[in-house]
Amino acid sequence: MRARLLLASATMLFVELALIRWTGANIVHLSYFSNFILLGSFLGIGLGFLLPAGRGQWLTRWAPIPLAVLVVLVREFPVQVRQSSGEVIYFTAVKTTGLPQWVTLPVLFGLTALIMMAIGKMTADQFRQLPSLEAYRFDLLGSLTGSVSFALLSWLRAPSVVWGVIAALAMLVLGGRRNTVRYTIPLAVMVAVLALESVANGISWSPYYKIEVKRSTSKARDYNIAANGVPHQSIAPLKALTKPGSPYEQPYRETPRNSHRRVLVIGAGNGNDVALALAHGARSVDAVEIDPRLQEIGASLHPARPYDNPRVHVHINDGRAFLEQTDARYDLVVLALPDSLTLVSGASNLRLESYLFTRQAFEAAHRHLAPGGAFAMYNYYRQNWLIDRFGGTLTSVFGHAPCITHYGNSRAAVLVAGTTPAAQSCGATWKASGPVPKAASDDHPFPYLLHRTIPTLYLGVLGAILLVTLASVRLTGVRLRRTVRYADMFLLGTAFMLLETKNVIGFALYFGTTWLVNAMVFAGVLLAVLCAVEVRRRITKLNQLALQLLLFASLAVSWLIPAHLVLGLPFAGRLAAAIALAFAPIFCANLIFSDRLAAASDPTSAFGANLLGSLVGGTLEYLALVTGYQALLLVVAVLYAGACVLMRFTRPDAGERAEPEPVSVATAPRT
Q1: β-pairing, 203-205 with 210-215?
Q2: Which residue, 227, 297, 234, is CA-closest to 80?
Q3: How many other C-beta atoms are found inside a 10 Å radius of the C-beta of residue 157?
Q4: Which tens digits make up the pLDDT trace of 253-295?
Q5: Quick one: CA torsion of 609, 614, 619, 621, rounded to 10 degrees?
Q6: Can you spell out the DSSP letters for 624-651?
Q7: How many C-beta atoms lie closer than 10 Å to residue 404's C-beta?
Q8: How far apart are CA 580 and CA 566, in angstroms?
Q9: CA of 172: how far to CAs of 158, 177, 654, in Å?
Q10: Are 310 and 249 in contact (CB under 8 A)?
Q11: What is the widest separation between alpha-carbon atoms in the chain?
Q12: What are the pLDDT digits (tens) for 148-174?
């Protein structure tokens, strides 16, 4: 019994994470909707738990069917960027293949919800057969197992077929002997499709992307590299890198008095910029690349063999984290085409490179320049206002306007800023083409967003998700009018989802946006919830007022301590501060939640209200596009205050429960 619950919970989290990663690797639209698959998974699991014990058995009988259908549809109709030239492109401004958004996104959301609803139903059936807190405990342990297992596979860079085989075996065990034949056929189809993808020529997986390497048809390139279906990088020989008009060469042309003895390349990738630094006589090159697979491809395929040179020191790390951790000073710092094409953990609007383009990041680069040194950045910016944003930020940080060189029919630009005007030699100096947008900041790290607003497309999609949620919860038999008495549970769910998002963002800033940091954060959330459950199992009567005061005190401390103070601490102190700031509110919030749920006379309605609140919290995360992330703490505090006020007017009915009703870990850590 306990083992089956452990397996069901682990499968639930494993499949959720696999869906987020795999669909994002094949459907480029998901780069715009950071938590789209997460919300679909969350809705499905919640509905699976809301179904009464005797209903919905058809879901468990046919559980693998929607999973196989989703995999087949995504492989048959992938949404990828259509490449029209051999140039590296900024993917948000080009045409895509596949079905349109209005078809792809609803189908993906519906199938994801159906898949997770079936697995959630399996988990709920096992959950109900154990005492509530004991079941909840094993649910958390299973979810932690699923999360850690997927993180381990990411570290091993296992292909998608491995994920499929593990999920298939787990579902066969959960389905039991009665469903062996019924499960085997669709699961075999799913594994076969993933196997074909995994053995395709040139396909490999990194902790971040599905990577495809192809020989180039252009004489100026040797290989083209696509990441998640988007043209991402190209490997070029030195003669192509140094030709007139090459963006790679421009930082050296515009700093003729610079010795270029020590060079830092952030976004080293396949090694083009590293090879050029060596060609210009660099005695030491620090090559920082977040993706180990991209660096390995460059080490094996680049014709100049830059990574074999003993003068090159490779750092597999987040670029901003490296800047915060190193004490070295450089003659030249190059921000080399850092366009990640992906989002942090699938649960926030933060892209892997977002913290490289904030004012604070430029200030960090400036601090690491030697006297007479220079900073250079280039990319296919596409929009003049984006160039103006970066040009204006560099002007503010360095005290003078940087050099600017357009290339590729003005679709891209190189910006070079010396520590002094004499440290740069400009053919042209940056001048604003119009009103200069405000610089991105560590609190509002959205360099590709012109105005502080939520795009209309997001509002429409998120509104549709909320409507689907309301209808789905009602169809499971939960009367929405009966959930009004659990408005406090609604607010608890909303607040916790926002709090979890804030913690993910905080750790990304303090330690980098690497897959390991993200895995540690989610494991930490589960451990904090597990600790709260263990305390609740041992202390049956909790002082709610004391817990609420501790919660608001921990939120106040998080609000009052600025991020730059934590960033200034040595690693051990930064880690201790980040853990305390992130997990103290989570621990207090989950103690309050578990105690409140124990007093609910109608746990199903209470859970339905909490589910709706959690989904609303997932949509409110987009408020950060307007307010910045620090302000989310104020929203969290207001929501918790409202929940606490409503709790004081809640009167438990007769026959109240002494223990919480079963709750899935997929929702509990966000309650």
Answers
A1: antiparallel
A2: 227
A3: 15
A4: 999 999 999 999 999 999 999 999 999 999 999 999 999 999 9
A5: 140
A6: HHHH-STHHHHHHHHHHHHHHHHHTT--
A7: 22
A8: 11
A9: 21, 8, 42
A10: no
A11: 83
A12: 999 999 889 999 999 999 999 999 999
- Closest-CA residue to 513 (of 273, 299, 289): 289
Cα-Cα end-to-end distance for the chain: 26
Judge whether residue 406 has pLDDT over 70.
yes
Q: How far apart are CA 379 and CA 458, in angstroms?
A: 26
Q: State which H helix or E strand residue 390 sits in.
A: helix 384-398
- Of 47-56, 378-387, 512-521, 634-643, which has the strongest mean pLDDT? 634-643
Give the relative orientation of helices 571-598 and 544-560 as an angle to the nearest 10 degrees: 150
DSSP label of 308: G
Cα–Cα dist 583/592, whole Å: 14
**Distance in angstroms (rounded) separating the CA atoms of residues 515 and 318:** 10
User: Backbone phi, then psi, for 72, in 5-degree steps?
Assistant: -65, -45
Strand order in the sheet with 230-235: 203-205, 210-215, 223-227, 230-235
Q: How confident is the model at residue 200 (pLDDT cuts 50, 70, 90)?
A: very high
- Spatial contact of 662 and 136, defined as CB atoms under 8 Å apart: yes
Instruction: Give the pair of three-digit tokens for residue 270.
Output: 């396949």
Q: Beta 403-407 vs 412-418: how paired, if at all?
A: antiparallel
pLDDT band at 31 (very low <50, low <70, confident <90, very high): low
Q: Is the torsion defined by CA of 532, 576, 492, 456 positive or negative?
A: negative
Q: pLDDT, tens digit, for every residue of 526-577?
A: 888 888 878 887 887 888 899 999 999 999 999 999 888 898 888 888 889 9
Q: Is 563 helix (H, G, I), strand (E, B) or coil?
A: helix
- Strand pairing of 284-289 and 262-266? parallel
DSSP notation for 404-419: EEEETTTTEEEEEEES
- pLDDT > 90 fraction of the chain, expressed in percent and rounded: 48
Question: Which residue is it, tokens 């954060």?
Answer: 521
Distance in angstroms (rounded) separating the CA atoms of residues 578 and 563:
10
Of residues 438, 455, 424, the one with CA closest to residue 388: 438
3-state SS, one letter per residue, for 498-522: HHHHHHHHHHHHHHCCCHHHHHHHH
CB atoms within 10 A of CB 586: 24
Structure tokens at 402: 């940087």
Q: Is 403 helix (H, G, I), strand (E, B) or coil?
A: strand
Burial class of residue 411 in the structure, from the number of CB atoms within 10 Å of its CB (0-12 exposed, 13-18 middle, 19+ buried) = middle
Length of the chain: 671
Is residue 189 left, alpha or beta, with left meaning phi > 0 and alpha meaning psi from -120 to 50? alpha
Q: Which long-range contacts (CB under 8 A, 24 or more apart) does 652-656 make?
A: 652/599, 652/600, 652/601, 653/601, 654/601, 655/601, 656/598, 656/599, 656/600, 656/601
DSSP structure string for 442-496 = SSS--TT-SSSS--HHHHHHHHHHHHHHHHHHHHTT--GGGGGGGHHHHHHHHHH
CA neighbor of 507 nearest in space, from 581, 452, 408: 581
**Beta partners for residue 540, in sequence order:** none
315-366 residue pLDDT tens: 999 899 999 989 999 999 999 888 755 544 434 467 778 899 999 999 999 9
Predicted local distance difference test score (pLDDT) of residue 188? 97
C-alpha closest to that of 518 among 224, 264, 147: 147
| Backbone dihedral angles phi then psi of residue 236, each to the nearest 5 degrees | -125, 145
Q: Which pairing describes strands 223-227 and 230-235: parallel, antiparallel, or unpaired?
A: antiparallel
